[in-house]
Amino acid sequence: MKNCYINGIGTIGIQHPDYKLLEQEPQALFARNQAQHPVYKELIPAASLRRMATGVKMGCYAAQLALQEAQQPALDAIICGTGQGCLQDSEKFLTAMIAQDEEYLTPTSFIQSTHNTVAAQIALQLQCHAYNFTYVQGGSSFESALFDGLNQLNYSNAQHILVGGVDEHAPQFDDLYTLAGNYKAEDEAVDFKNPTQGGVAQGEGANFFLLSQEQQANSYAQLLDVWLFNQPQRSIATEIMQFLSLNNLQSKDIDVLMLGYNADASQQAYFDAMAACFPETAIAYYQHISGSYDTASAYGLAAAAQVLKAQQFPAHLSYNSIKPNRLKTILLINQSRGTDYSFVLLTAC
Amino acid sequence: MPRGVAITGMGIVSSIGLSMEENFQSLIERKTGISRLTNFSSKHADHIKVGEIKHTDQELAQLLGLGSAHSFTRTSLLGALAAKQALNDAGITDINAERTGLLSATSVAGMDYTEKYFQHFATDPELRKYINSHPAGDSSNKIASYLGLKGLVSTISTACSSAANAIMLGARLIEQGKLDRVLVGGSDALSKFTINGFHSLMILSDSDCQPFDQHRKGLNLGEAAAYLLLESDALLAKHPKKVHAYLSGYGNANDAYHQTASSETGEGAFLAMQKALEKADLAPIAIDYINAHGTATGNNDLSEGHALLRCFQQVPAFSSTKSYTGHTLAAAGAIEAVYSILALQSSCLFPTLNFQHKMEEFDLQPQTELQSKTINHVLSNSFGFGGNCSSLLFSKA
After folding, report:
1. Is B218 found in the same domain as B284?
2. Which CATH code is given to the segment(s) A5-212?
3. Which residue among A154, A176, A233 sits closest to B131, beta carbon to beta carbon?
4. Which of A172, B134, B192, B250 gives the lowest tally of CB atoms within 10 Å of its CB?
5. Where in this chain does the record put each Ketosynthase family 3 (KS3) domain (chain B) (predicted)?
C-alpha cells in the first residue's frame, strides 16, 4: 500500500481570501454568511468567468490554488464533493420554468445546474482527460471524494489527485432549508458552545486539496484513513473504536479531535457523544470560522493540515479546555442531522 | 481463476417492466416502453415521447409497503424497489451481516417534488417534509434505510454516466478489500425540470428515438432504477452462490471538450473504452457485443460512432436499448448493465428499435434484429454532460 500526502490546499470561504488561520482571529459569524471573493480573473479566464455561478468560480479558483502550491503536477484524477450541487443554477432554471410556465427557457442555467459542473469545468480548464468524479452525499460528500482519492493513491498507480468540496448559497433554497429547520433564521444568535436553538449558521465555500503519493518538503500532512457511513451499526462509540483499531490506534493516540460542531442545538448531542469517547483529548472546532455547509468539513481538513504542518494549535480552534501535548495525529469526525457520518485520520509528516 | 468482481444479484424497474424477467421479455419481443407522458402535466406533453413507468407514486409506495408519513420522492421509490429486488435475487436476508455498502447514482434526486411544491412550501407545512428530499444524497439514504442497511452509503452524480461510475467504484472497493459486498446502480425519475432542460437544449425527439439513424431527431427521456449486488471472492468462497456475470473491466475518462457537447473525435469515450479493455486485459477483438450509449442525439451518436471506429478495427455488434426505455439519465448505466448481463446469460443480441438509415458519416449499423450468438464479453458505454465518459466490461460467469 502506498502513501498519501497533502501537498497543496486552496480555500475560498466566508473569511477574507488572505485570512491566516494560524495567525488571526476569524471574523465573527452571523446566522447567514456569504463568501468573500478573491479576484477570480487572476486564475480563471474572463470568458469562462462570465457564465460561472459562485460555486463554480470558488471551486475552480480553490482548485488552482491547491495546484499552484503543489507545483502544478499532472493529475490522475479530479474528484469533487458537493452536498447541494449547483444550487444557484438549479434555482434559476426552476424559477424561470415556473414563472414562464415552461416556455422561452434558455439552456445555460440547466446545463450548469448539473451536479458535476465544477469537476467538469476544472477538467476543461486544465484540458485534463483523467478520471473525473462527483459525489453528492450531503454531509459526507467531501469525505466520499477524499475516500476515493486516498484509495486510488493507496492501491493504484495514481500519483497526483485533486480532491475538493464546494457548496454555494441560493436565496430561495436557503429560505426553504430555513423553513425545514436546517438553517438559523436571519437574526438568530449563534452559540457554538451552548446552542439553545436549532439550525446551523449557513456559510459557503470551496476547499481543494492536492493529494500525492510522494512527500514534498512543503507537504502539510499525511492522510492515513477515511471512512464514511449512513448510520452506526450499534453506537458511534463502537464505530470510532473499530476505526481506531483498524489503524492500530487507541483513543489516547489522538492528539486533537476535530469535530463539526455547528451551533445547532438539535445536533449538539451527536458531537457530544463523539467527544465523550475522548475524555482527555483536546477538541477542536472549525465551523465558527467556515460557517456551516455540507462540505464545510473540507475546511476542517484544511485547518487540521495547517495545524500539523506548522505544529501550532491556535486558541481559537480550541473547543474544550484541554491543550494537546503534541501535534502528531488528528482525527476529524463529522455527521449531518444524524446521518452522513465520516472519519478522517491525519498525521504529521 | 478470478475474472473480475462477481455480480450475484440484479434488480430493475423501467418502462419495459418492473422486474428482470419483464425487462428481458420486452427486449426479446421488441416491446417498447416509449409512450406519451401521463403521470404529470407538462406543456410539452403532446410534443415529446417518454419512457415512463405507468405507476403513480402512491402505487409504488404501496408496493414498498411505506406508511403515509414517508417522504420518498419518485427517485427513491423506484430505487428502493430495484435495490430490494437485487438483494432478494442474491438471497441476502441479513444485510448488515457482512461489510455492505450502497453506491447509488442520481441526477434528478427529489427535483420532481421540489418543482411541484416550490411555491407551496411556505404556506403549507404538511409539504415541508419534502424539502430535505431534494438533495441527491437523501435518495440514497432513503434507499439504505428502506433496506435496513447501516454502512458505507454514497451518491455519485456525473450526469448520464453516474450509474456506470457507481458500478465501477463498487468494484474497486471490493478489489481493495474495503467492502465484502456492495449494491451499486442508480435511479432517476422523470421530472418537468429535466424535460424542460433537454427541451431548451433542443435535443428531445417528438417521436420514437432512432439511435444511430441518419434522420435521428433527438432523445426520449425515460425513468428507471437498477442495482447490481457485487460480492467479494472471499465472501463467495464462504457462501457459494450463482454468479450472474463478472465485471472484468471499467474505465472513466473526461472528454474535456465542452460542458454539454461531446468532441467529434469521441476522445473521452475512446479513452474510457480503452481503459476498460486494459483493465480486463482483453484485446478489442474479444468484445462480442456493445450496449452503446446511443442517445439518438445528433451529437452523441456521431461522437460515439467515431470513438467505436477508433477503438475497434472491426466494430462488434452493438445496440442502443434506449430505443426501448428512453434515456434514463443517471440510471442508464445501471439498467444497461443489467441488459448487458442478460445478453451474456441468454446469448442474445438485442435489437435497436426504429433504425432505418445508416448515418452518412460512417458505415455503422446497429443490431436491428434479435439474434442468438455466443457472447463472452459485453462492453457498456455511458457518457454524460461535463465530458464524463465511462465504460464497463462484463464477462460471462
Report:
1. no
2. 3.40.47.10
3. A176
4. A172
5. 2-396
| Number of helices and strands in chain B (H, E) | 12, 15
Of B136, B384, B388, the CB nearest to A85: B136
Residues B206 and B295 in one domain: no
Average pLDDT per consecutive 10 residues, chain A (349 residues; last block may be shorter): 97 97 96 97 93 96 98 97 97 98 96 96 96 98 98 97 98 97 94 97 98 97 98 98 98 98 98 98 98 98 98 98 97 98 98
C-alpha B21/C-alpha B342 separation (Å) is: 10
- The span from the CA of A288 to the CA of A317, in Å, is 9
Measuring CA to CA, which residue among B160, B185, B161, B157 is closest to residue B171?
Answer: B185
Task: Find residues 293-352 of chain B whose CB sits inside 8 Å of chain A.
Answer: none
Q: What is the pLDDT of residue B1?
A: 40
Enter the pTM of the model. 0.98
Domain ranges across chain A: 5-212, 221-347
The DSSP secondary structure of B187-207, one letter per residue, reads: EE---HHHHHHHHHTT-B-SS
What is the per-residue pLDDT for B332? 98
Q: Which domain holds residue B34?
A: 5-238
Distance of alpha carbon B309 from alpha carbon B327, whole angstroms:
23
CATH of the domain at B294: 3.40.47.10
Task: Give the residue from chain B lying closest to A116, CA to CA.
Answer: B158
Cα B282 from Cα B275, distance rounded (Å): 10
Domains A5-212 and A221-347 share a fold: yes
Which ipTM was obtained for this model? 0.97
User: Would you put residue B325 in left (φ > 0), alpha (ψ -120 to 50) or beta?
Assistant: alpha
Nearest CA in chain B to A87: B135
Min Cα separation B25/chain A (Å): 34
With CB atoms and an 8 Å threshold, state whether B121 touches A179: yes
Question: Which residue of B lies nearest to A131 if distances are taken between CA atoms?
Answer: B253
Query: Could you tell me the three cell numbers for B179?
Result: 467492502
CATH class of the structural domain A221-347: alpha beta
| Residue B280 and residue B323 in one domain | yes
Q: Which residues of A touch B268 (CB under 8 A)?
A: 129
**3-class secondary structure per residue, A2-17:** CCCEEEEEEEECCCCC
**Three-state secondary structure string covering chain A:** CCCCEEEEEEEECCCCCCCCCCCCCCCCCCCECCCCCCCHHHCCCHHHHCCCCHHHHHHHHHHHHHHHHCCCCCCCEEEEECCCCCHHHHHHHHHHHHHCCCCCCCCHHHHHHCCCHHHHHHHHHHCCCCEEEEECCHHHHHHHHHHHHHHHHHHCCCCEEEEEEEECCCHHHHHHHHHCCCECCCCCCCCCCCCCCCCECECCEEEEEEEECCCCCCCCEEEEEEEEECCCCCCHHHHHHHHHHHCCCCHHHCCEEEECCCCCCCCHHHHHHHHHCCCCCEEEECHHHHCECCCCHHHHHHHHHHHHHHCCCCHHHECCCCCCCCCCEEEEEEEECCEEEEEEEEECC
Q: How far B223 CA lies from chain A's nearest CA (Å)?
A: 17
Same domain as B262, residue B175 = no
CB contact under 8 A, B197 and A107: yes
Split into its structural domains, chain B has a count of 2
Same-domain status, B221 and B335: no
User: Is B58 in the same domain as B28?
Assistant: yes
pLDDT less than 70: residues of chain B = 1-2
∠ CA B14-B84-B69 to the nearest 5 degrees?
A: 95
What are the phi and psi torsion angles at B367 (to 5°)? -60, 125
Is B199 in CB contact (< 8 Å) with chain A? Answer: yes
C-alpha cell at A285: 472546532
Residues B229 and B330 in one domain: no
